[in-house]
Amino acid sequence: MSAEGASQLLHWFQQQHGVVDTTSMGIVDFPGHGRGAIALTDIPEDYTIFSLPRDLTLSTRTSTLPTLMGKAWKEHGLHEGWAGLILCMMWEESRGADSKWSGYLAALPNEFDTPMFWAEEDLKELQGTAVVDKIGRHEAERDYHEKVTPAVKSRPDLFPQEKLAQHLSLERYHLNGSRILSRSFHVEKWRGEHVEDADAGDDDEDNDEGEDSAMDIDPQPPVADKDDAPVLEDTANQPDEAGFEDDEDEDEEDREDPADVAMVPMADMLNARFESENAKLFYEERELKMVATKPIKAGEQIWNTYGDPPNSDLLRRYGHIDLVPLRPPLSGMGNPEDVVEVRADLVVAAVSKKVKYDMQERVDWWLEEADDDVFVLRTDCELPEELISLERLLLQSKEEWAKTAKKSKLPKPKVDVDVLSVAIDVLAARLKEYPTSIDEDEDLIKAGSMELLSLNKKHAVVVRLGEKRILQGTLKQLRAQVAASAGNGKKRVRDEERERKGKKAKK
Ligand SMILES: C[S@@+](CC[C@H](N)C(=O)[O-])C[C@H]1O[C@@H](n2cnc3c(N)ncnc32)[C@H](O)[C@@H]1O
Fold first, then answer.
1. Residue of 29, 271, 313, 314 with the most ligand 1 atoms within 8 Å of its CB, for mutation
2. Which residue puts its alpha carbon closest to atom 8 of ligand 1?
3. How many angstroms does the Cα of residue 319 sit away from the middle of ligand 1?
4. Which of 318, 456, 462 to mutate to test the pocket of ligand 1 (most atoms within 8 A of CB)?
5. Using omega within 30 degrees of 0 as the cis cutoff, is the peptide bond preceding 160 cis?
6. pLDDT of the chain, 507 residues: tens digit per residue
């Protein structure tokens, strides 16, 4: 952002009753991070860097569009998912200077490095990773055609024909969806707050679509009692831009009320880096405050947190990745919060090579009882207990299986050589789902080569390599366990032999 752009945003913010200490904080460009906030003086812990009135946040609660549309808001399904907020943003932008948020919307990015906007050729580089199936382009487009387009057509007074191409196109819909995905906050109504218009999609019982905002917010300023301030939301598990089909299984009560998803001017200028947070947004009855959670030295970047997600989610939602030193058993640079997903069907396939009976009944029972069809491995390289339990279930003798089904209890996650051997086959099969090997990826990102890669390709290689290293690390541990138990087995045979010979000699 040019110095002029930053000063225009600050000017607009102050005009709208935002309060910012411009001697403490500036907005500058950080190479590779876009714009960000910088400390201009030493900032002490608990200092309020800026604050804004709640009505300066942009959401389906604060925009007047839902009220203007009345009953049609719900009739078009705009109270569910992000379609309503995206429409509010497109409508506010189409109003130009008449919109209260014109100065803010003008400062929002118009381009993203997220896979949602990648060419097919770059997307192929992500094959095998957790990103591909979660991009959500199809679901977003369905919402655009089924909810937004009919709503827009029904109100030419609000959406005049001459504004449609520039402000209400599918392209603008995706762009605003990505703005929400990478910049929104979870802002709940203050308890006792007046409900404006029950028909305008604001009532709480309609809380039935799963989507989360991009960043954390706390309900009290830390000054009062920092350690007890409850964090309202765990942002580690983030869903898609719109439609959110991948969250179908999420519990209803865990789902975020779409009206709580809010764009928060100025707060969304803060970047984030793994475990670097030094400021956080807190809310009070009438305002939101960005407060330093640590002392920040002059010249340092002011970092928020995006919940330290794995690189697959960072890339999908924000378009960047984190690279920091990994902890044992892994080494090198990566994201310590990385994960790799392993589908249960790989477990079924691996067991089916070792047994002769039909497993369908057990699989159906598992899906009913455990409801786990994807297992998540982390950088600690431990086998998930649920995966071990499924293996044990599938390996049980007919008699054991009959008992399990009768007791309705999942098998205990105990490993033995059979379980280890199946797990090795599962992870080896999972590694084959990536089109390249670990060595090939390491070659691509070694010093001297990485600089030759496009940004998208570099991001894709880091994401897939992060997942593969977890698989490789876990395989290493499993093979070591097999070797140890084989060693124990041989020792046991030797001991038994010695004992037998000893008994013979005595006779
Ligand atoms: C909430 S906005 C922060 C402000 C943003 N940099 C801007 O220029 O408007 C989130 C976006 O900032 C960028 N970003 C944040 N943290 C980053 C990091 N550690 N490395 C690279 N880019 C980062 C990503 O583009 C992300 O989508």
1. 271
2. 35
3. 8
4. 318
5. no
6. 677 788 899 999 999 999 999 999 999 999 999 999 999 999 999 999 999 999 999 999 999 999 999 999 999 999 999 999 999 999 999 999 999 999 999 999 999 999 999 999 999 999 999 999 999 999 999 999 999 999 999 999 999 999 999 999 999 999 999 999 999 999 999 875 444 333 333 444 333 334 466 765 554 433 223 232 222 232 322 332 222 223 333 444 467 899 999 999 999 999 999 999 999 999 999 999 999 999 999 999 999 999 999 999 999 999 999 999 999 999 999 999 999 999 999 999 999 999 999 999 999 999 999 989 999 999 999 999 999 999 999 999 999 999 999 999 999 999 999 999 999 999 999 999 999 999 999 999 998 888 999 999 999 999 999 999 999 999 999 999 999 988 776 666 676 667 766 665 655
Q: With a cut of 0.95, is the ipTM above it?
A: yes
Residue 223 alpha carbon to ligand 1 centre in Å:
27
Rg (alpha carbons) of the chain, rounded to whole number: 27
Residue 249 corresponds to which amino acid? D
Enumerate residues lining ligand 1, CB below 6 A: 32-36, 109, 182-183, 268-273, 318-320
Domain topology for 324-493: set domain protein methyltransferase, domain 2 (3.90.1420)
CA–CA separation, 489 and 485 (whole Å) = 6
The rounded Å distance from CA 64 to ligand 1 centre is 29
Domain residue spans of the chain: 3-318, 324-493
The CATH number of domain 3-318 is 2.60.40.1930? no
Calculate the CA dihedral of residues 385, 386, 389, 393 and round it to 10 degrees.
Answer: -170
Same fold for the pair 3-318 and 324-493: no
83 C-alpha to ligand 1 centroid (Å): 23
Q: Between β-strands 25-30 and 34-39, what pairing exists: parallel, antiparallel or unpaired?
A: antiparallel
**CA-nearest residue, atom 18 of ligand 1:** 33
The helix/strand/coil state of 251 is coil
| CA 65 to ligand 1 centroid distance, Å | 29
Distances (CA, A) of 247 to 15, 243, 252, 504: 40, 9, 10, 67
